[in-house]
Amino acid sequence: MMPKPKFSIPLSCQVLYNNILFGLKTLEEYLDFWQLLPLKDLPIRKENPMRIHIIACRVFSRELSYYAAQSRHTVDITWLPQGLHDTPDRLRTMLRQTLEDLYRQKEQRMLKHWPDVIALGYGLCSNGVIGVESRDIPLVVPRTDDCIAQFLGSQKRYMELFQDYNGTYWLNNGWIESAFVPSRENLETMRQEYADMYGEENAEFLMEQDMLWARNYSACGFITSPVYHDPAYPELARRMAADNGWKYAEFAGDTRMLRMLTDGTWNEEEFCICPPYHRLEAAYDGSKIRAVPISAEEKAI
To answer: Among 35, 55, 89, 167, which is most buried by a count of CB atoms within 10 Å?
Structure first.
């Protein structure tokens, strides 16, 4: 194992990092270097403009697009379909496929510029991010249960509201625009589709089965956004709550974590900064996600 460096490498010294890493002859030496390096010294050039590639759920479309356009960094975004948290294995597969596609574009010289960091616009999302691996650049992931915490501004605030508003079905601009929202109109459309395919009697039965989940909720919470407001959206949420016999409440959205994602101002408390050649694992100490090294043997497979 290499001796631990007796110097601190500034974040801005990307060339120095590259020279050091270029001199490491074997994968074992490379992995040893990253294990010895403090997270605060990762080669993420926060002081200078960098390139950030975000792989995100489409539910973040308005907010991430807005803040990416304002960021001093160059931010590219690959969007994945909303709802993959319902099938975490599929989410994990699509994240891996998207990463593979980026590296394929790099190998084929289709990408003119390679990112300094890849970030995920996801939280744990039913453990769908667990098992995803970084390669030669860091991977950054918010330490949240899901997107709702990010729309509310922090996992801490999400947990505080969860205590008082347990059983809340959350909605916001992104969910209404990209997800299936069980409004009266959407449910009637679904029922008609079932009737056309299976007949009226079967349609009623299928609708009852599809709506069993609604019994787990007692309120609808609408999260506002400083980026975009459409009066029709909270009104839709209010009607949906009334149709289901739920209470209704509105909460001011806080986009600080989404701004941090595009601005590169990640901290270790709220973001898992996964070094190169590490794997995301679930953490059960409140930090949600941790990064563990990939062994040389695993990398060789």
So the answer is: 55
